[in-house]
């Protein structure tokens, strides 16, 4: 058995993490790691990002710039590099790991493959033979028109490097293809000049299956564990509500776990993965996955003894995990309704007077329309009851423009 040794932050023996991306998910990973005494350094594209507000140190730069990324790694000298967003110079991570010996979580290739819809489709559909939506890739409007005809209407057009619905369009007819092409290039998280077009999957419900690869304390082998499935509802490609556990047939759950096992085993490394799947009856279709905590998985802060953030922190540090859920729960988002200066939140007392409600306000200073600024977490007697409480509480909360302090 390999002994895991953790240091103390801010001392020469500290265990140090460099997180690439510092949004709401990174903020919770930072807190989880700090509870284990870890020193957390956070990088992002803008100052004062949510995770930076709780980190030991922060760095603001364009993380798609490979040279700058290597410089920051050299300055921080972390034990682990933990990507938190897609928009990073992923192709440089392998060289950084090879040259410095610093582990990239879960692996440099897993980060590169999962941030690029073309690479993950190639792995999942072509190499592993997993069921997916029909798809095509396009590097020009003409190619996209041909691709849309091939997969059929209605279809989804998405930038190859994106998340939270950025640059995603639902396209019902050939006349809408050009607008989708333009929107994908305007609103992508990072610009690749390429899009995926996917035929619409007719599903009963969709889930995130949080899947953890961690080191077993007894055998020292890497083992795979699963959280209970998380159901969610998406609007314009971004989640608005999630709940756990999503009821599923035994066959569908077994298939979901098998797909998650296949794809995460192929990617390798240690950490949590958010495997997104569509379910129709007993059939399960692979959509995509994150090699890190998932936004829909924030519900685990209400449902599990160890949230997805605790699980990620433990798994990346080489520690064992326990994925058991002990409550039914739900999560509902708090989004900015428009461009708002100095966001402030009202209705919190009303929200918190509902039983078993908790609120996370992320600390994003810039509030533009649709930006996720917080979530409500609810426990309930069952998922229906938890969803009702979460939605009621998030409806009670409003984002307003605050006055500047004199
Ligand atoms: N081919 C499809 N068929 C049916 N629905 C789809 C399809 N592709 C996407 N969707 C819907 O849009 C949502 C977002 O799509 P996707 O996960 O690919 O985007 P994303 O920008 O990576 O989102 P996130 O970062 O939040 O995971 C899906 O969860 C699903 O509800
Ligand atoms: N679906 C991926 C996802 O939810 N990622 C989370 O959103 C942040 C970016 O938010 P922003 O766009 O508001 O800056 C990311 O840093 C991550 O925490
Ligand atoms: Mg998704």
CATH topology of the largest domain: D-amino Acid Aminotransferase, Chain A, domain 1
The radius of gyration computed from the alpha-carbon positions, rounded to a whole number of angstroms, is 21 Å
The CATH H-level homologous superfamily of the largest domain? ATP-grasp fold, B domain
Structural class: alpha+beta
Q: Which percent band covers the strand fraction?
A: 25-35%
Helix fraction? 25-40%
Q: Note the gap between the termini.
A: 59 Å
Count of individual helical segments: 12
Q: CATH first level of the largest domain: which class? A: Alpha Beta
CATH-defined architecture of the largest domain: 2-Layer Sandwich
Give the total of beta strands: 20
Bound molecules: adenosine-5'-triphosphate, glycinamide ribonucleotide, magnesium ion
Largest sheet: 9 strands, antiparallel
Large-scale geometry: globular
Which segments are poorly predicted (pLDDT under 50) over 5 or more consecutive residues?
none
The residue-averaged pLDDT reads: 97
Number of domains: 3
Polypeptide structure, described:
By secondary structure, the chain is of the alpha+beta class. It folds into three domains: 16-104, Rossmann fold (3-Layer(aba) Sandwich); 134-199, ATP-grasp fold, A domain (Dna Ligase, domain 1); 205-401, D-amino Acid Aminotransferase, Chain A, domain 1. Helices cover 30% and strands 28% of the residues. The chain is built from twelve helices and 20 strands. It has helices spanning 24-34, 66-76, 93-100, 108-114, 117-127, 141-151, 177-187, 250-267, 300-303, 308-316, 348-352, 383-396; strands at residues 16-20, 39-44, 57-60, 80-83, 103-104, 135-138, 155-159, 169-171, 195-199, 205-215, 222-226, 230-235, 238-244, 271-280, 283-290, 328-335, 343-346, 357-361, 372-380, 398-401. The strands form four sheets. Strands 10, 11, 12, 13, 14, 15, 16, 18 and 19 form a nine-stranded antiparallel sheet that branches. Strand 4 (80-83), helix 3 and strand 5 form a beta-alpha-beta unit. The protein is globular. The protein starts with 15 loop residues before the first strand and ends in a 5-residue tail after the last strand. The mean pLDDT is 97. Residues 122-317 form the ATP-grasp domain. Mg(2+) binds at residues 276, 288. N(1)-(5-phospho-beta-D-ribosyl)glycinamide binds at residues 24-25, 84, 295, 364, 371-372. Involved in the de novo purine biosynthesis. Catalyzes the transfer of formate to 5-phospho-ribosyl-glycinamide (GAR), producing 5-phospho-ribosyl-N-formylglycinamide (FGAR). Formate is provided by PurU via hydrolysis of 10-formyl-tetrahydrofolate. Its EC number is 6.3.1.21.
């Amino acid at each position: 058995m390999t002994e895991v040794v953790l240091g103390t932050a801010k001392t020469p023996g500290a265990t140090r993490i460099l997180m690439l991306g510092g949004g709401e998910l990174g903020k919770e990973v930072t807190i989880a790691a700090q509870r284990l005494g870890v020193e957390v350094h956070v990088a992002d594209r803008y100052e004062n990002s949510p995770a930076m507000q709780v980190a030991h140190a922060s760095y603001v730069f364009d993380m798609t710039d490979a040279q700058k990324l290597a410089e920051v790694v050299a300055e921080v000298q972390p034990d682990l590099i933990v990507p938190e967003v897609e928009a990073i110079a992923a192709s440089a991570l392998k060289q950084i790991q090879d040259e410095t010996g610093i582990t990239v979580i879960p692996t440099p290739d897993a980060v590169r493959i999962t941030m690029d819809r073309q690479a993950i489709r190639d792995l999942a559909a072509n190499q592993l033979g997993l069921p997916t939506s029909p798809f095509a890739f396009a590097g020009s409007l003409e190619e996209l028109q041909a691709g849309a005809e091939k997969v059929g209407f209605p279809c989804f057009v998405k930038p190859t490097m994106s998340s939270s619905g950025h640059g995603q369009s639902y396209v019902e007819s050939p006349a809408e293809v050009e607008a989708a092409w333009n929107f994908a290039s305007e609103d992508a998280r990072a610009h690749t000049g390429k899009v995926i077009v996917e035929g619409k999957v007719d599903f009963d419900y969709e889930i995130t299956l949080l899947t953890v690869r961690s080191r077993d304390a007894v055998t020292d082998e890497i083992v795979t564990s699963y959280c209970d499935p998380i159901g969610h509802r998406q609007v314009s490609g971004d989640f608005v509500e999630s709940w756990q556990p999503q009821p599923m047939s035994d066959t569908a759950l077994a298939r979901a776990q098998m797909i998650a096992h296949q794809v995460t085993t192929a990617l390798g490394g240690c950490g949590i993965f958010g495997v997104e799947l569509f379910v129709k009856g007993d059939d399960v279709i692979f959509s995509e996955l994150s090699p890190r905590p998932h936004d829909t998985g924030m519900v685990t802060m209400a449902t599990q003894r160890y949230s997805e953030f605790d699980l990620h922190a433990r798994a990346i540090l080489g520690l064992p995990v326990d994925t058991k859920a002990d409550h039914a729960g739900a999560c509902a988002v708090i989004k900015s309704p428009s461009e708002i200066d100095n966001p402030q939140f009202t209705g919190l007392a009303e929200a918190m007077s509902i039983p078993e409600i908790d609120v996370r306000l992320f600390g994003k200073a810039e509030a533009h329309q649709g930006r996720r600024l917080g979530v409500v977490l609810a426990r309930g007697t069952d998922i229906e009851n938890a969803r009702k409480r979460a939605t009621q509480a998030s409806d009670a909360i409003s984002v307003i423009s605050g006055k500047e302090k004199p």
